[in-house]
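[User] Once you have settled down, look closely at the record that follows, and write a paragraph about the fold.
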Amino acid sequence: MSSIATSIKPGRDAEIKTAPGPILLLGAPGVGKGTQAKELVKLWDIPQISTGDLLRANVTQGTPLGKVANEIMARGELVPDSLVNEMVALRLREPDTVRGYILDGFPRTLGQARWLDARLAAQPESLPVVAVSIQVNYNQLLRRITGRRICPVSETIYNVYVNPPRLEGFCDLDGAALIQRADDTEEVFKERMRAYEALTAPVVEHYRTLGRFAEVDGDRPIAVIASGIVAAVEQLRKG
């Protein structure tokens, strides 16, 4: 299936007519994936499921899975897919996931994608995963990341290219000197992009092959991007 870059009017017109089901939201560093996830959560009244949040919650609460994960991380090792899958499986049993959910950070690998597809296929009442990727030009992403400046007092975020402070280098609200995060550099961004593309490419190809993948233009206002995602999901569900 070819990519979809359509949009509909935001607001009530953006309300999906059927249950959205499980949605994998993809996007390179800086595309605003987190912002869009929050918009979709409000629009559809479905939860956002982040594997990072699941992992932290299990560790903090001292669950059996959390204890195993904590021991693995304490050794400096990566938590294996099998353990992450178990955490996700438990979360998907919660009643708030019946109509759908936004997947954030999962499936991250081809193995996880296949596991999730098989699990959902075994449940006749479950819709399959559809994947939507937010696309933004590389140079635009670079400007978003490297131009970011943060006020250490009010935590207000500026961008020297598109949303600069009135006085260069200082916060409009309290006059504090703005800072640039250590990882908001071109070198770090390039490395993050390489890692993202290497990790995500097999997952994207997996869902593209299944006809359950779409792209939306992420270089637009927040509400318009959200509407584009809704339209893409509706189209994929029809297919």
Summary: DSSP finds eight helices and seven strands in the chain. The beta strands are 21-27, 48-50, 100-104, 130-135, 148-150, 157-159, 213-217. Residues 1-15 have pLDDT under 50 and may be disordered. The first strand starts at residue 21 and ends at 27.
